Amino acid sequence: MVAPTQTVATVDLLRWMPLIPLLACLINVFFGARLGRKTAGGLACAAVLASFAIALYVFWLLPATGIFRDTVYTWIESGSFQVKLSFQVDALTAVMLLVVTGIGFLIHIYSLGYIGHDEGMIRFFVYLNLFIFFMLLLVMGDNLLVLFIGWEGVGLCSYLLIGFWYQDHTNTIAGNKAFIVNRIGDFGFMLGLLLLVTELGRQGVWTLDFMELQKHVNLLSPDKITLITLLLFVGATGKSAQIPLFVWLPDAMAGPTPVSALIHAATMVTAGAYMTARLHFLFVLAPGTLSLIAIVGAATAFFAATVALTQNDIKRVLAYSTVSQLGYMFIAVGIGAFSTAIFHLFTHAFFKACLFLGSGSVIHALDGEQDMRKMGGLKAYLPTTYWTYLIATLAIAGAPFTAGFFSKDSILWQAYSSPHGSTELWFVGWLTAGLTAFYMFRQLFLVFHGECRADDHVRAHIHESPAVMTLPLVVLAVGSIFAGWLGAPEYLWGSRWNQWLQPIFGGVHKAAHGSQADEINLTLLTLAIGVLGFLLAYFAYGRASKLPGRLASLAGGGPYRLLLHKYYVDELYNLLIVRPFTYCSRWLAQVFDPEVIDGLVNAVAKGARGFSLIWREIQTGNVQHYLAGFLAATLALLAYFFNQQ
Amino acid sequence: MVPLDHYLILAAVIFAIGVIGVLVRRNLIVVLMSIELMLNAVNLTFIAFSRHLGSMQGQVIVFFVMAVAAAEAVIGLAIVISVFRHRQTLDPQEMQLLKW
Prior knowledge:
The structure holds 2 protein chains of 2 kinds. Among the domains of chain A are: 286-556, no CATH class; 569-644, no CATH class. Chain A contains 26 helices and 3 strands. Chain A has helices at 16-35, 37-61, 91-114, 121-140, 144-162, 169-202, 210-216, 222-239, 248-251, 257-266, 271-278, 280-283, 287-308, 314-334, 338-365, 383-397, 403-417, 423-448, 456-459, 467-482, 496-505, 516-542, 547-552, 558-564, 569-615, 623-644, and strands at residues 7-10, 66-78, 81-89. A 3-stranded mixed beta sheet of chain A has the order 1-2-3. In chain A, helix 1 packs antiparallel against helix 4 (121-140), helix 2 (37-61) runs antiparallel to helix 3 (91-114) and helix 11 (271-278) runs antiparallel to helix 15 (338-365). Chain B has helices spanning 4-24, 28-53, 57-87. The longest helix of chain B has 31 residues, at 57-87. Chain B is elongated. Chain B starts with a helix and ends in a 13-residue tail after the last helix. The model of chain B has no long low-confidence stretch (mean pLDDT 92).
């Protein structure tokens, strides 16, 4: 299990990767208005491009078993406990860097077109750059504290960007929801982090550094590790939108679409998966936590996919699809296949970013319309968007030789064959694959095929997006096909991916059972259910059909309503948590505070006043009275001292 | 030679008269005079002990006390005059403004 020894080298270049976006962000904060919209936007994009270039260079330099490190300064020093502001790049971080800066750059470019006419454009790019900065801190930090700063920072940016159009009250509420739900997760994360530090400290090792932690992890007792990993996983469920803290992600679609693509699909929401992979040496020692993660992941994947079947908002379908795909990643984490989880994270970033940006292009063309029932037939109007969307849809549905095909099948195969996996996990994942194909093609048909259902005056304005928007789409579509080729299964040309991450995760588990023939068979089964999903979507939505109505009224329409209302989870949380909480707060504010707290304070004041009313009588103002008191006291003292002798 | 006790008893009596005068008289000038009585009673004690012990220190202190008493009398009388100009009275019972 122990990874081969890794060589550490110091590379001062690393600090510039997060620093450049931060600088651009600050420049735009203070001088953005003076620079003008074009320059400000260009600066923001250039900053991310610079980071991407450095990331590529570092990736090219990085030896297979090497770690680059860059210590900026020692931040906290207390006895033997040291926290440094320092960055590290190993194979895992390098992958994340490329995703964050590469896809981040494409989305910056896209935003130039998407948000270019919005009056808040400069503010938007400030937030985006700040996000890139924090995300880079998150993936590059070489200790838990730097990771945690990034973790909180991306949450902040997410909040800011969801509520970007703050004049609309629902957006602000969605932002608050995201922030509050994330706080719950972060609280667990923080507890886990503190517990980890204090427990190791009790054994004499005060450190937050990943390499040190990995070295000393065996000092911890299994119970403590289970508790720590469970708490950390609570943090992951918040950030990566898993059951039970997933409710914020669908609402987060209130933000501008590039934000949905960058933060709520490709990068930030994968932070949970990244964190578990980064701390894999802890998680592998807690089999109980791992199986819980796998179950939560599988449940989330299936649950979110079923909700996605019925949604009518183009972005909401994608949001639930993201939740579902994140569930896949956690299945992989839960069975200990960390490199596979990161692989799915990597491919997912391409096709989901492409889908979101495509939907943004559609929404842009339809003047802000998001309801798929008012779309249709857009294929003719938006050819580039259509073709890229089609490719990304194929990729997420797992069509052969697309990115999703390799990563999803790899997860399913691991779920089936790994010693921690089980047939049940595989089955849920397999079923979800079918659902995925169905809801994605349903969306494709509803949006791009058939009759155009848009209003006449909207239809008159439908136009393909400008090149700044379509170009990123094309690049991402290409990625959606080829990104997966790095991690092909053994029966094709073998996985470069696992080789690359092997120094970190110590190689993939040997299959506990199942042969290569089984693997091929399982792949064929997955393909079959994917095709089934596609066919169902085609017959229901690809042509005029009464099938959707009939499906909806199945079993009295109950199941349909249940799915349409997302299992009433929001309502349930409202009833169980939000309402009692607001009720309590109101009681505290309107009853407890004025009556009890204020009452106590006033009682103390009244008591002091009453007491002084009595005692002030002895202050008569008559100097002779004072002198009499003076004399009495002197005599008393004299008497006292004479008695003493 | 007059024994020490007699001096001390006389001083105590004068001091007591002074104290009672300070506490009970209704005229500020008399109060001030009573204070002088107390001071001089103390002076008498110093002188008596000085003579009894054959030391000059007591007499030196008495000179200081007399100097301070003179200054005190000057300031005290100045205040009394100033108060009288404002209030047309010297009764300390009428001067009770300095309180809550």
